[in-house]
Amino acid sequence: MIDGGLNSYHLQYLLWGALWTIGLSLIAFVGGGLAGGVIALCRVSPIKAVRWATIAWIQIIQGTPLLVVLFLCYFGLSIMGLELPAIVAASIAMIVYVSAYLGEIWRGCIESVPRTQWEAAECLALSRTQRMRLVVLPQAVRIATPPTVGFMVQIVKNTSLASIVGFIELVRAGQLINNSIFQPFTVYLLIAIVYFAMCYPLSVWSRKLEQRQQFGNNRGTAPPSVTTA
């Protein structure tokens, strides 16, 4: 394995690290998305206590570095007698982190639906659940798609912090390789290239979605609306 330079084994190890990075990103996005959806709905709840509880959750998580959340999930839970593998602790920390940000992003998208749509749905005597499911959320999803795709770039990049708790993703794989061949510039340049290859398509997709949405608005095409006829 140690031959003074990069070889095919090292490259294969980096690719495996990249696959684990993608896997952790998907876990964080799916788990954090489900929790974020609940948080977003709680943020627009008519119950004041629910709104304040979710506001407190968002402020605490957004005000805490992800690195600290990782330490709490890995070392903090172990002190309490709950030993978690690195992948589980990293997944929990990423889900907690993503839930707060996606919840706030989606809350803003829900509230950006024109009030006339809410009022028209109310005039149809729809229940609050029906108004959200049939009128508000379909329009909010369309608005939320570009920022959500853009945030996925942050999720991919933030998985690099999972190396702190021993999870072998792309950065940790690069560290182990560098400890063998002592070529940090080459190794980390490759890591940067792999991250760019993963994140750039998401950035382009997000910009295209945003431009498409702006183009539709400029043409005067509005989201599906509710009519009282």
Automatic annotation (TrEMBL):
It holds the Pfam family BPD_transp_1. It is found in: Cell inner membrane; Cell membrane. SUPFAM superfamilies: MetI-like. Its main location: membrane. Keywords: Cell membrane, Membrane, Transmembrane, Transmembrane helix, Transport. The chain crosses the membrane at residues 13-42, 54-77, 83-102, 185-205. This is Amino acid ABC transporter permease. It comes from Acidovorax benzenivorans.
